[in-house]
Design goal:
The complex is a heterodimer of chains A (about 270) and B (about 190). Chain A has about 270 residues and is α+β, with helices and mostly antiparallel strands. Helices cover about 45% and strands about 35% of the residues of chain A. The radius of gyration of chain B is 28 Å and the shape is elongated. Classes of the chains: A alpha+beta (about 270), B alpha+beta (about 190).
Chain lengths: ~270, ~190
């Protein structure tokens, strides 16, 4: 029994020695590789150093700037773009509508807003510390002396693409609104209305910005722009266009559906 | 003499490089168009979406997280400008009408900026705050994600069902006893 135990111990120790040797070899190989890599980097560094050293001062500045720019570009190239995570689109409401859109106004406009914002800059004075060691070492503490209040101009410029859709809400035509006499159809039309003023996030482009702007401030600017786009659409004649185009389209449609004459009552 | 010439060249150079539109000019630049259309919107979906971004990059210490809640209104229906009179067959003797309409499509999407609310934002380590440009980019991606999902939402099928009901009711009012409403085969986005 004791001999068996010895054999086992011998086997175990030989196995352990094998593993130890392998690990030792692997580590030494790794160290050699790191050493070679460091050597390579060192020689590249030396070469760059010599190259830069041989250049005149303006050349040195240019090469160092090019290297820094190259590094920045490299980091940017490998940087992943800002993307959103996948989330569900939840349908919260379904509504039956009968909107006959007959005119659409499109506007591309620039929004430029500016305001003065208050910037508070603290001014510190040097003060002696209670800590004697710090004082001996010449390390002084900062103490708030005053706050300089200044106003700085903040400006933002956006390019927006807005859309206004108008037409007839056919659900407003009640049973008495349709009168059929032979092949003549008489329709009591409601007033045309604006259905949507659309400025989606994809309709916005930040052209320029300086100074601090909060998201709420930008939302207010866009809301104001939407109102302006709506007014521009009205001034441009969207309502009149919706009426003329709507009537023309309806006459042609109802004639296709078997009527010879279509009369509109407003 | 030489100094004067040099100054003149400098002036020409400044004038040549400063011919872009000023901000005042930009403010008054606008493109406006008004077009006719014939779109029958038959269904409106209200979509709620969470827009979230976890901007974690290996080369910067810290992370940035932001979460928005948003609402979008989608309207779908039939573009009647694509409807041809040849697609209507009327049998006056049997008071029957058969009409084939174009397939339903998404007519409008409205994702108001006022309804996109920041619910959570955290920036740690050496990371910069989300800029207004980045925030806009995230919202644009949220909008694009809703658009991409339109074929899976069922809005186009609902728009057709609603349009069918609309035309059946209308044709019945016009005095037709039998109404057959069909749609073309392909959906258009």
């Amino acid at each position: 029994m004791s001999i068996k135990t010895d054999n086992n111990t011998e086997n175990k120790s030989s196995k352990e020695t094998g593993i130890f040797d392998k690990t030792k070899k692997a580590v030494s190989l790794l160290v050699k590789m790191i050493d070679k890599l460091a050597g390579m980097i060192g020689s590249i560094g030396k070469f760059i150093g010599k190259f830069i050293g041989a250049l005149p001062s303006l050349g040195k500045i240019l090469v160092v700037s090019a290297l820094a720019g190259g590094m920045t570009l490299l980091v940017k190239a490998f940087a992943s773009p800002l993307t959103i995570d996948k989330t569900e689109n939840v349908v919260s409401e379904i509504k039956r509508i009968s909107e006959f859109t007959t005119a659409c106004f499109y506007e591309e406009k620039t929004l430029i807003e500016s305001h003065y914002q208050i910037v508070e800059t603290p001014v510190y004075k040097k003060a002696e510390s209670d800590n004697k060691v710090m004082n001996l070492l010449g390390i002084q503490q900062k103490q708030l002396d005053s706050v300089v209040v200044d106003s700085v101009l903040a400006q933002i410029a956006y390019i927006t693409h807005g859309k206004v859709r108008a037409g007839y809400n056919l659900s407003r035509i009640n049973d008495d609104g349709l009168l059929i006499k032979g092949d003549t159809l008489t329709i009591n039309l409601p007033d045309v209305e604006i259905f949507d003023i659309i400025v989606n996030p994809s309709d916005l482009e930040e052209f320029d910005r300086y100074g601090e702007w909060t998201e709420d401030e930008i939302t207010v600017i866009v809301s104001k722009a939407k109102e302006e786009i709506k007014q521009d659409a009205i001034d441009f004649g969207i309502m009149e266009k919706a009426v003329s185009s709507g009537k023309e389209k309806m006459v042609s449609l109802f004639k296709t559906f078997g009527f010879n004459e279509v009369v509109f009552v407003e | 003499m030489r100094t004067n010439k040099l100054l003149m060249y400098l002036m020409v150079l400044i004038l040549a490089t400063s011919c872009g539109p000023s901000k005042e000019e930009l403010m008054h630049q606008r493109v406006q168009t008004l077009s006719e259309m014939a779109e029958l919107g038959t269904i409106e979906y209200t979509i709620k979406k969470i827009i979230k971004c976890n901007s974690d990059v290996w080369y910067k210490y810290g992370d940035r997280k932001i979460l928005y809640s948003s609402v979008a209104y989608l309207k779908a229906g039939i573009d009647m400008s694509e409807f041809s009179p040849e697609n209507v067959k009327i049998d006056n003797a049997n008071k029957t009408i058969t009409a084939t309409f174009p397939k339903a499509k998404l007519l409008s999407m409205n994702m108001p900026l006022e309804l996109i609310k920041e619910e959570y934002c955290r920036v740690t380590g050496l990371r910069d705050e989300f800029s207004t440009e980045e925030r806009l980019l995230l919202k644009q991606q949220g909008e694009a994600a809703i658009r991409e999902d339109v074929p899976n939402l069922g809005i186009l099928e609902d728009a057709e069902n609603s349009a069918k009901l609309f035309f059946e009711t209308m044709f019945s009012k016009f005095g037709y006893d039998k109404v057959i409403v069909n749609f073309e085969n392909e959906y258009k986005n």
